[in-house]
Amino acid sequence: MEAIALKDRENQIHRKGEKPFEIVCDKDSLAGAVSQRACVFCGSRVVLYPIADALHLVHGPIGCAVYTWDIRGALSSGPELHRLSFSTDLQEMDVIFGAEKKLENALLELIDRHQPKAAFVYSTCIVGIIGDDLEAVCRKVADITKIPVIPVQSEGFKGNKRSGYKAACNAMFRLIGTADTSNVSKHSINILGDFNLAGEIWMIRDYFKRMGVEVVANITGDGRIDDICRAHGAALNVVQCSGATMDLANMMEEKYGIPSIRVSYFGIEDMSEALYDVARFFKDDPEIMTRASQVIQEEVQKIYPELQKYKKALAGKKAAIYVGGSFKAFSLVKAFRLVDMNVVMVGSQTGTPEDYRELDDITDPGTIIVDDSNPLELTSFLKEKDVDIFVGGVKERPIAYKLGVGFCDHNHERKEALAGFTGMVNFVREVYSSVMSPVWRFVPRKNRNSGE
Amino acid sequence: MTKMPNYISTTNACKLCKPLGASVAFRGMEGTVPYLHGSQGCATYMRRYIISHFNEPIDIASSSLSEKHAVYGGAANLKLGLINVNKKYEPKMIGIATTCLTETIGDDVPMILKEFAKETGGLKGNPLLVNVSTPSYSGTHMEGFHATVAAVIEQLTEKSKANKTINLLPGFVSSADYRLLHEIMADFQNQTTILPDLSETLDGTALLEYEKVPRGGTPLQAIKEMSGAAATIEFGRTLGAAKTGGEILKDKFKVSNHRLGLPIGISETDRFFDVLTEITGSPSPHKYELQRGRLVDAYVDGHKYVFGKKAIIYGEEDMVVGLTSFLAEIGVQPILCASGGKSGRFKEAIAAVTDGVLTEQPRVYEGMDFFDIAEEAEGLEPDLLVGHSKGYPLAKKLNIPLIRMGFPIHDRIGGQRILHLGYQGAQHLFDTVVNSLIEKKQNDSPVGYSYM
To answer: Is the ipTM of this complex over 0.90?
Structure first.
């Protein structure tokens, strides 16, 4: 059989049980390998995107802005400035003579038009090359408009998506510590790394509210500039999606002494654990733990009967997972286990060695673990393992569908809430509605006489 | 006539970037893998954008440049990427398009490719390497698309003996449109080279085995022999700022070039059939007389529902010209024609296709974004919007129907199957427009009519 992977990528794929765990990751994508990854700019843009009362101006040619216009399902309970796509749309002359003046005028025009609470200015590849001084322009505009105007150093080629997360964290860190925190409760947290896709953060906030814990800032789902400015008043940072916002939590711990815990809101197990972890942190008030247990009990009771129904149908089906960050992969492995499904492949775009080691620990022998994969590898894995459902993002969807494999979108474009207790039912329902569809009878994989 | 708004910033652009057009065009050539010379994000973003319309896998390779390449030049990674993509995809051709990053750092791709050929003696399997310059800071995806067609002809077409084929360069239309063009040319019993050809490559069947490079696309041998054709027909009334494929064939090989508008609606389709009759010497097949006759009959049946309704049409310039021609001929009043493109020929083209039909010319603006369009729309009281799915927020705000046409369609299934061209396409357009207006009237009425 032909080798599935290019030689330079072989050490980024591990099959559990074949040899001791070893995987290479966090390296630049191989040229010509059709990586599923994006770039630094993409990393920054997705993290800051949900901050709804800020102006997000992309300084560059039109592509970078237009491909990120309204692409996240991140909802806002108020302003919706984040859903617009602003660009300086650089032209040839701007590239030759520099575009600082254009940037300044664009910022002044947009700030005057929309009256945002702050502005983020994203640097793109080309800005890194022509050398516009973003800091200087932002400082000048901040002076004139009296709002924070913050450069995001997200030149596409300066690393991968993770570097973009870091740049976004650096940008937010400049806001934190600039507002009054005197009325913040001692039982308070910031929610980091939830992006309020399909209203997820509203569910999570509701759980914490019922526990008696105050949420100071959403970072960044349904986020607001004023909240972020006072985020340093919280007692604890609760961090999901460690890849995206862990850097911010670390910086806040260093400067403000705020500890952080890592959680996931996907699946009953991890969601419950997240609430218990927060309750355990506030041990000075045992009532919080009591209420946490109550919330969990109530919520699980609500979803249990429906889950059982799906479990009966789905037991024994095979799942493959390929997601951006590996934290989500852990939860998904557990969530599938809860309905007796088998995970046979799991991978991510930007996992760390620790992440992959953990995946190796929690998966069954024979499971394929892969870093920074590509369409050819993924299709070969799907076929080899005869997968029933593939969990991924938009770029993975047509790969699954073309081969007649079910699919569940677990990326940031989705419009279904998959976090929280309710999210667990939604997730299983999604999986069920794809796996159980009668259309697979017609695809060549199940019926060799049709399709081709 | 009001003054064209002239803002510095761009909000919700009505155009895409140049390499996207190149990627789509390359995707319509036999055995070809599109390859972007730039940072990883460009390829990934464009894949996501194209996939969301076509629901088909599209693998675009990237040279995945990082910071050191941006400083020292991307040649090494370009070459490494070519070797890797060739190894995994075994393509017949690799279509290399530049990006703003590599144009700005000054990579001379033709020279690098020459150097590469000398160093390696050619890649295994001898795939053809073609390249096109597509800096995203000048022009839109349409310039990228047409530049790619021109570059391929310039680099591949050789002198060959006269044959009776017709070269057809349709531009960026749907897969269904490409299939229709094949059918028409076959009905004229004529050998045709359609470049590119998205009929199969971006609307394929369900498969058992993943195709590394999808079947279909313009045969490379046919591209080489376009020099011997009886004539070239190219669609696009706003073409001509850069040298087109048709012009190259005319200048280099003396193949006569017929430039027509996209055949949308009866008038423009009649012109296309007239030219076909003229070139082939055969009369229009009876089948099309019937299609045209039924279409005229339908126009009569539905004319009162649409007469005097005011439409805003936006999108790619040539698509807007075609749609405007169609709307004008059925009695709709186009009031605003807008595009993010800047061909300099848009207004003239609109005037040409509506000459003798419209008593009053619509406002016609190049370089528009959706902020401009929304602002212009105020006070115009449009009854419908016609264009791609990115106009949906405006349609919702104005509470009027959006007739989804062109690219991208990101909020409905089947964008690749929308038929725009020919009498059949016009029939589809007409039914859609009329029914949308009837539906609006029906929904807005409190009576609950079940008979309209």
So the answer is: yes
Instruction: Note the pLDDT of residue A3.
Output: 66
- Residue ranges of domains in chain B, CATH in brackets: 18-139 (3.40.50.1980), 166-280 (3.40.50.1980), 302-444 (3.40.50.1980)
Q: Which of B15, B49, B212 is facing A376, going by the closest CB pair?
A: B212
Which residues of chain B are modeled with pLDDT < 50? 1-3
Q: Residue A357 corresponds to which tokens in the numbers above?
A: 């080691």
How do residues A28-43 score in pLDDT, each as one tens digit?
Answer: 788 887 887 888 999 9
DSSP string covering A78-143? S--GGGS-EE----HHHHHH--HHHHHHHHHHHHHHH--SEEEEEE-HHHHHHT--HHHHHHHHHH
- Which candidate from B59, B65, B140 shows the least CB-CB separation from A34? B59
How far is the alpha carbon of A451 from chain B, nearest alpha carbon, in Å? 6
Beta bridge partners of A264: none
Residues of A in contact with B374 (CB under 8 A): none
Q: How far is A115 from chain B (nearest CA, A)?
A: 15
Least confidently predicted of A91-100, A153-162, A289-298: A153-162
**Which domains does chain A carry?**
40-173 (3.40.50.1980), 188-296 (3.40.50.1980), 315-414 (3.40.50.1980)
Instruction: Tell me if A95 and B83 make a contact (CB, 8 A cut-off).
Output: no
Packing angle, helices B422-444 and B175-187, rounded to 10: 140
pLDDT reported for residue B230: 97
Peptide bond into B362 cis (omega under 30): no
Contact list in A for residue B212 (CB cut-off 8 A) is: 376
Q: For residue A236, which phi and psi values (nearest 5 degrees)?
A: -150, 140
Question: A390 — phi, psi (to 5°)?
Answer: -115, 130
Q: What angle, rounded to 10 degrees, do the helices at A161-173 and A242-256 form?
A: 30
Q: B58: which chain A residues are within 8 Å (Cβ-Cβ)?
A: 398
Place of tokens 């799915």: B389
Are A31 and B81 an interchain contact pair (Cβ–Cβ within 8 Å)?
Answer: yes
Whether A157 and B48 lie within 8 Å, measured CB to CB: no
The confidence score (pLDDT) of residue B5 equals 57
